[in-house]
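# nightly structure sweep
# worker-07 picked up a monomer target from the shared queue
# config: single-sequence mode, recycle default, output format = structure tokens
# input follows
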Amino acid sequence: MSRIEEKSTEQRIKDLLHADPKDLREGVTTGTCAAAAAAASAAAFWEMTAGKDVLSGEPCMVSITTPGGKTVDLEIVRREFTETEGVRSTVIKDAGDDPDVTDGAEICAEISRIERSRLVTPDEMPSETVMKHAETAGCDEREIEGPIPVYMDPDYPGIALTGGEGVGICTKKGLPDPVGFPAINPVPRNMILREVHDVVRRYAGEHPCAAPAAVNHAFPQNSIYQAPGKEDREGGVEPGKPSGEPILLIRISIPKGRELAEKTFNPKLGIVGGLSVIGTTGIVHPMSEDSLIRSVELEIRVRSAEGRTVLAIAPGNYGRQYLHDKTGLDMEHFVKCSNYVGEAFRMLDQVGVKKALFAGHPGKLIKVAGGILNTHSKYGDHRMEIMADCARAAGADEEMCRRILNLNTTNEASEYLDTAGMRGPVYAEAAVRVKCELEAISHARVEVMFLDGERGLLAQTDGAEELVRILSEEEKTIYG
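# output follows
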């Protein structure tokens, strides 16, 4: 896939808002780009053993089968020698019509030879070494003193995968990757290892020094890249055993990853020093709702893994100043669920969260009071109908309810309720209804705060102050 035209992120978002979804151009994930670059490097590295000059000439194409079963052809724009006597290949990411910050970024994969004794897998790394990697993540010197953290898989013997420049390091529990290790998620991780393994198998039988049994090895037997090592009963190099045997090391790098990561949720999630290599299907679907929901669910997992007993959730940033000034809470530590209120609260049961504070602007929360758990306008509005019903339950007469139905926004409703002396009772009724709706789907105790940027706290459920106190104490413990 090639980038057909250059547009600013802002312009692309505007285009998407007016586009028919079926007309939008798909792109490829960072994981797919990394797998293609790794396959190209592996092929070039192997052909070098036969004395071929594979690093000159025009850019080449690599065909990759994505985890979703789709085959894509990606251009390798550059292949070059590295200081480690390996080969690095580069792919330019094409995110299609999705306004992804990584669109147009260079995704690189280097293949080199390294001794197994210099590497450490998640199962082998001592806890103190894990913490040292986490503490130094994001430093200019990516390879701190000690072994290199890598991923290995017994299905792909003799091959290891790690991150380089611009690939983040995980520093918090709850992420798909272990603390102290590169942020290369499980699906792309398997994809990269599989593509390189397939190259190895393909070339092993063609190499003049290769024996027939070597097709399961990372290097041809008796070649200049193969040293005798411990073998398992299937004849391959036994993984997970530190020794001096040679390993094929894949190092993924994103040259501008550190800079681009500042425009993502990575720093907030505890991924520092760069981007994540992600992708579940291998294909980017423009403005995918599923990807947004997965981001919310991932943040819930991270917050839960921090050891919190109460989770704070908000659709957005309304009420930020009030919360900070009146309660000391920082909304940066809230899970931002956007429109996906239902998905966020259903997730609480999966991660074992038993208490949650839900705070936000009436424009979103009033919909939840009426059972609308995705607050995007395309799924329904009915704000004034729900507000009028809450007013009726709070003792308003029919004339007041009719007046509310004729208003356009919750801000207008708040002003009207102020003049009628009914703002407190109406929002108190709405808060109780929100609490009931969310407790029914989350199986957690939920407390609610209706917040307005100008008016501050409009209403809250009876237990909200207790959860605010617990959250404040936990923030001090976690963040100091």
